[in-house]
TrEMBL record, chain A:
GO molecular function, one term: metallodipeptidase activity
PANTHER family membership: DIPEPTIDASE (PTHR10443:SF12), MICROSOMAL DIPEPTIDASE (PTHR10443)
InterPro entries: Metal_Hydrolase, Pept_M19
One GO term of the biological process aspect: proteolysis
Coiled coil: none
Organism superkingdom: Bacteria
Region named Disordered: 1-43
Organism: Streptomyces ruber
Name of the protein in its database record: Dipeptidase
Feature: compositional bias, Basic and acidic residues: 1-10, 24-37
UniProtKB/TrEMBL annotation, chain B:
InterPro entries in alphabetical order: Metal_Hydrolase, Pept_M19
Protein name: Dipeptidase
Lineage, top ranks: Bacteria, Bacillati, Actinomycetota, Actinomycetes, Kitasatosporales
Family matches, as Pfam families: Peptidase_M19 (PF01244)
Database matches in SUPFAM superfamilies: Metallo-dependent hydrolases (SSF51556)
Organism whose genome encodes this protein: Streptomyces ruber
Single Gene Ontology MF annotation: metallodipeptidase activity
A Gene Ontology BP annotation from the UniProt entry: proteolysis
Top-rank taxon: Bacteria
PANTHER family: DIPEPTIDASE (PTHR10443:SF12), MICROSOMAL DIPEPTIDASE (PTHR10443)
Length: 389, 402
């Protein structure tokens, strides 16, 4: 729980911690001042930033998470585990941010395991890296049958959670994993890939999606693989939002209005996301969201106001090498964040959407769009040379 | 009384052969249709729809598979070993087979196990399995091997025409002298998975090393007998003799340049001619075939027959025994085929020839169906055992071969 602490944990990625709440200039815009109006009594009198969250609120957070666990949109586990010779996620693995006991403590019901690909051009290097990590994820899941279960669809995700397992979803993987080949995409999908990030390839570059890129989005839709746009260029994101027949996701994006990070989304894009009923998964990283729980909550408030409560979710980004905000240091910490949001007056309905419902909706949307598309589209045999010539 | 149908269709043996094949159809160990589709139409499956007659372009289509009494096919997901991107290309080939199965659900059934093969036979569909042709398809990665298995690949030929770093090919210079330590680890991991170790294309040294290393039955997906025709792609007798102890199966191939000595010599000259014209010697595109035809006009091609293949089977039966034989035609992977075995509808002619040579119904059922199904089932049994006792290997060539 959120203990009183005298000083902030220092972070490696950002400069000095934010000034204490009292000294901090009010940012003045919607969500923040709204919060100030709604819950002025809850800000602490002391000059240190250490919100006192009443014990009953923390209890409510736990109760809420027990009913609506967190579907976490990004974990760096495959790469982190590949470096270890030995690990036991079941008993606890202190060298990591994530293990089964902490996933249970944090009420994580589903977790996307990101595949880390080597930098540079794709080809066999990227494909082999993707296959090796898929293999690793499957081995880890098999080795921890009481804690983890692989899921490929919305239904399997719910099923895993109802069996008391954390659903493991494969992805996102960078588009270099599939290169220029829809066939490769189909094979990776057959192996369980559930999200692909449209970046790092010629067909989804700074200029946006090419014709072949649009064909690949159609193929992703046909397969039910989520289109991930975190790290995609603004032009690619805008075009993918328009082209995709299934809701798109940003697996690691916060609000650029609050923190100017390239992966964060400008307000205008958040509004478009709302119209397209996509999903912005806000990362719990000091770099993108800020060094404290309240900073993360500020981003969530902002995204909720602009994109709507149905288009905001959570992305732990644990074990990815990122520095995390204070009190959100590992996968067990979600109750702290939920308690903060309860204090800010988030309704239980909105919190249920934030933690679980929205990811479920997007997964279901992808599965549904796939079934519909398979009725009218043949598997794509397009070649990049034909379309982008 | 002078108008008779052609002798072959009136032959009582041929009718008998068709009856036998209806009960115990052919499991063919190797068909390169996916590669032909890649080369000819870049996987545009509508342009070479195997539901229609493709005899102008392919050795294989559904009607001819049916006419040939084929009940199970290992579709080869072969890719070139002399070009980069083998893993990507292999996955594209796998995707092609999966699409073929999806497009023709009434005729093809995806099969991953011996039980699936039997189920397909019971339903009257053609069990469709996959085999990778060459260790280059896994790029030295056992994780990649496991994912090929996950995608449905049920055998891997350890090499194609070129050596890999850990295994010697029959048609390359000696490298590691058989299998390296990593090569043995690959075999072990294949045993653990239940993926058949295929020893076609590999050097005799590799065959012997693999037979030493494997605890599951091995296969030769498309190889004939070296004692009958001395070509490195064929199996020497000392290796055939080891099959009873191993439990494996040698699937006789029809390729004339491997089974007929005159054709071996002719093929060497033809390959030289192809290379002289700037083509890969295995190229089967229209342009390449033109060059080939021009060569053939000046150099008449020695013709193998059904009887040539039967000679191999007779010999292999002598040496390995009836329980260790099978058929692997290599259709759509070779330009020429013996008379009477010109496409996938030809198998009944071979069975008729063997009937005439006195093979019994039981023998023929083993040759066509039972042996191959038994071998896959045995590999599954070994895998179940090994998986319960051993962990997946992540060894690398650097660790084992230094």
């Amino acid at each position: 729980m959120a203990d009183l602490q005298d000083e902030l944990r220092t972070t490696t990625e950002v400069g000095a911690p934010d000034p204490p709440a009292a000294a901090r200039p009010e940012r003045g815009t919607g969500p923040r001042s709204e919060r100030a109006r709604r819950a002025p009594a809850l800000t602490t009198e002391t000059p240190v930033e250490a919100p006192v969250v009443p014990a009953d609120v923390v209890q409510r957070a736990h109760a809420l998470l027990a009913a609506h666990p967190v579907a976490d949109g990004y974990s760096g586990l495959p790469k982190a585990l590949a470096r270890l010779h030995q690990y036991d996620l079941e008993l606890g693995e202190r060298s990591m941010d994530t293990d089964v006991p902490r996933l249970r403590q944090g009420h994580v019901g589903a977790l996307f395991w990101a595949l880390h690909l080597p930098d540079g051009p794709g080809g066999d290097r990227a494909v082999t890296a993707a296959l090796e990590q898929i293999d690793l994820v499957k081995r880890v899941v098999q080795a921890h049958p009481d804690g983890l279960r692989q899921a490929r669809t919305a239904a399997q995700t719910t099923d895993a959670r109802n069996c008391g397992r954390t659903a493991v979803l494969l992805g996102p993987a960078g588009a270099t994993a599939v290169g220029d080949s829809p066939a490769l995409l189909r094979c990776l999908h057959a192996l369980g890939l559930k999200a692909l990030t449209l970046a790092g390839v010629s067909w989804a570059g700074e200029a946006g999606l090419t014709r072949f890129g649009e064909e690949m989005v159609h193929e992703l839709n046909r397969l039910g693989v989520l289109v991930d746009l975190s790290g995609a260029s603004d032009a690619t994101a805008a075009r993918a939002l328009a082209v995709s027949r299934a809701p798109v996701v940003f697996t690691r994006s916060a609000a650029r209005a609050l923190r100017p990070h390239p992966a964060n989304l400008p307000d205008e894009l958040l509004l478009r996301l709302r119209a397209a009923r996509g999903l912005c998964l806000v990362p719990l990283t000091a770099e993108q969201t800020g060094p404290s729980v309240r900073d993360v909550a500020d981003h969530l408030d902002h995204v909720r106001v602009l994109a709507g409560p149905e288009c905001v979710g959570l992305s732990g980004t644990y074990d990815s090498g990122a520095a995390h905000p204070q009190d959100l240091g590992d996968a067990s910490c979600y109750p702290h964040l939920i308690a903060e949001l309860l204090v800010r007056g988030w309704s239980e309905d909105h919190l249920a959407l934030l933690t679980w419902g929205n990811v479920q909706r997007v997964l279901r949307g992808a599965d549904f769009a796939a079934r519909a598309a398979q009725q009218r589209r043949q598997p794509s045999t397009a070649r990049i040379a034909w379309l982008d010539g | 009384m002078t108008t008779f149908a052609p002798a072959s269709s009136a032959s009582p043996s041929l009718d008998r052969a068709r009856e036998l094949l209806a009960a115990f159809p052919v499991v063919d160990g190797h068909n390169d249709l996916p590669w032909a589709l890649r080369e000819q139409v870049r996987y545009d499956l509508a342009a070479r729809d195997i539901a229609g007659d493709q005899s102008a372009h392919l050795h294989t289509d559904l009607a001819r598979l049916r006419a040939g009494g084929v009940g199970a096919q290992f579709w080869s997901v072969y890719v070139r070993s002399d070009q980069p991107g083998a893993v990507t290309a292999t996955l594209e080939q796998i995707d092609c087979v999966r699409q073929l199965i999806d497009r023709h659900p009434e005729d093809l059934r995806a099969a991953l196990t011996a039980a699936d093969m039997e189920a397909a036979r019971a339903e009257g569909r053609i069990a469709s399995l996959m085999g990778a042709e060459g260790g280059h398809s896994i790029d030295n990665s056992l994780a990649t091997l496991r994912q090929l298995y996950e995608l449905g690949v049920r055998y891997m030929t350890l090499t194609h025409n070129d050596n890999v770093a850990w295994a010697d090919s029959a048609t390359d210079e000696p490298g590691v002298g058989g299998l390296s330590a990593f090569g043995r680890e690959v075999v072990k991991e294949m045993n653990r998975l239940g993926m058949l170790v295929d020893l076609s294309h590999v050097a005799a040294t590799t065959m012997r090393d693999a037979l030493d290393a494997s605890v599951a039955p091995v296969i030769f997906s498309h190889s004939s007998a070296r004692a009958v025709c001395d070509h490195p792609r064929n199996i020497p007798d000392d290796v055939l003799e080891r099959l009873p102890a191993n439990g494996g199966v040698a699937m006789v191939t029809f390729v004339p340049k491997f089974v007929l000595q005159a054709a071996v010599d002719w093929a060497k000259a033809a390959d030289d001619n192809m290379r002289a014209h700037g083509f890969h010697h295995l190229d089967t595109t229209a342009e390449a075939m033109k060059v080939h035809q021009a060569f053939e006009e000046t150099h008449p091609r020695p013709v193998a027959t059904v009887s040539t293949v039967a000679d191999h089977l007779d010999h292999m039966r002598e040496v390995a025994g009836i329980d260790h034989l099978g058929i692997g035609g290599d259709y759509d992977g070779t330009a020429f085929l013996p008379d009477g075995l010109n496409d996938v509808s030809g198998y009944p002619n071979l069975i008729a020839e063997l009937l005439d040579r006195g093979w019994s119904d039981t023998d023929l059922a083993k040759l066509t169906w039972r042996n191959a199904v038994r071998v896959l089932g045995a590999a599954e049994d070994v895998a179940r055992d090994l998986r319960s006792r051993t962990a997946p290997s992540n060894a690398t060539p650097e660790q084992l071969d230094g």
